[in-house]
Design brief:
266 residues, Rossmann fold, 7-stranded parallel β-sheet, globular, binds NADPH dihydro-nicotinamide-adenine-dinucleotide phosphate, Sc_DH/Rdtase_CS, KR_dom, oxidoreductase activity, acting on the CH-OH group of donors, NAD or NADP as acceptor, oxidoreductase
């Protein structure tokens, strides 16, 4: 047996070999979503990337295929029900099945005290962060129930969903909502063998946070609460996505996996 075969057998033995599994990653074309997609293809999964920007989608697919992975991108605005329905149909046509949805697509913004914000700010953030998650989960659950073989839903929330989201209340409300959706689905669909969990990123260096990273005063404040004294990276989410997709997590349901380098316990 070669080293590679031994490693594959070892990964399969603990439910981390994803060969034959198909995973949709919304917002998988950059940042945390792409970090998870890279981990997934390296573990053997086929990945469908859903994102709006077709150029960025294509670059992500090239990167994933460069790792030897099977990947395809589908132009999709998760806030648009017709787009989500079409993207799920295209994913099934291309890959033949679905095993896991990672509902990661999200937007930030709308910073400020509540009286300074408008209801349009709320609509912009919630349409993606909450409605997009709900629409994606509906499409995935319908597919998984039709297949009748169970599956996994992974919803990306945030520390803002469990801590005081000061000057970021609208975003925090959407991310707390994601956790509620997660708990609801974890109980609603367990009988169909579909488990639902959430990943809560801490402070991670991506396009979403590049302004904050560049602000030295803010960065100093953030990393003073991270025992590792650094921002996290998209790579920190690769193995979490693999674990929650693989059969090794088959009894993990309704949980919040915080990936923050210890920020919340400091
Ligand atoms: P990025 O801004 O780097 O990436 C966001 C991703 O979401 C992109 O792939 C983007 O693709 C996609 N996206 C945004 N809106 C839509 C939409 N309407 N339809 C489909 N795709 C969409 O952010 P991160 O990687 O940092 O964030 C990923 C997730 O992690 C988000 O849910 C975020 O809230 C959460 N998070 C991030 C933290 C951080 O510190 N970075 C901390 C806590 C949580 P496109 O623009 O092409 O559509």
């Amino acid at each position: 047996m070669t080293d590679a075969q031994q490693n594959a057998a070892g990964a399969a033995g603990v439910g981390l070999d994803l060969t034959g599994k198909v995973v949709v990653v919304t917002g998988g074309n950059r940042g945390i979503g792409l970090g998870m997609a890279r981990g997934l293809v390296q573990a053997g999964a086929s990945v469908a990337v859903w994102g709006r920007n077709e150029e960025v989608n294509a670059a992500a697919v090239a990167q994933l295929r460069g790792l030897g992975g099977d990947a395809e991108a589908f132009a999709c605005d998760v806030a648009d029900e017709a787009d989500v329905t079409r993207s799920m149909a295209s994913t099934l046509e291309r890959f033949g099945r679905l095993d896991t949805l990672i509902a990661n697509a999200g937007v930030s913004g709308a910073y400020g005290r509540l009286h300074e914000l408008s209801i349009d700010d709320w609509r912009r953030v919630s349409s993606v962060n909450i409605e997009g998650v709900i629409l994606s989960c509906q499409a995935a659950v319908r597919t998984l129930m039709e297949q009748g073989e169970g599956g996994s839903l992974v919803l990306v929330s945030s520390l803002a969903g469990i801590e005081a989201p000061t000057r970021n209340t609208l975003y925090g409300a959407t991310k707390a909502g994601v956790l509620s959706v997660m708990r609801g689905l974890a109980t609603e669909y367990a009988r169909e063998g579909i488990r639902t969990n959430a990943i809560l990123p801490g402070w991670i260096e991506t396009e979403m946070t590049q302004g904050s990273v560049a602000n030295q005063k803010f960065t100093d404040k953030v990393i003073s609460r991270v025992p590792f004294r650094t921002w996290g990276t998209p790579e920190d989410f690769a193995a979490a996505a693999v674990f929650l997709t693989g059969s090794g997590s088959s009894f993990v349901n309704g949980q919040q996996l915080v990936v923050d380098g210890g920020y919340t316990v400091f």
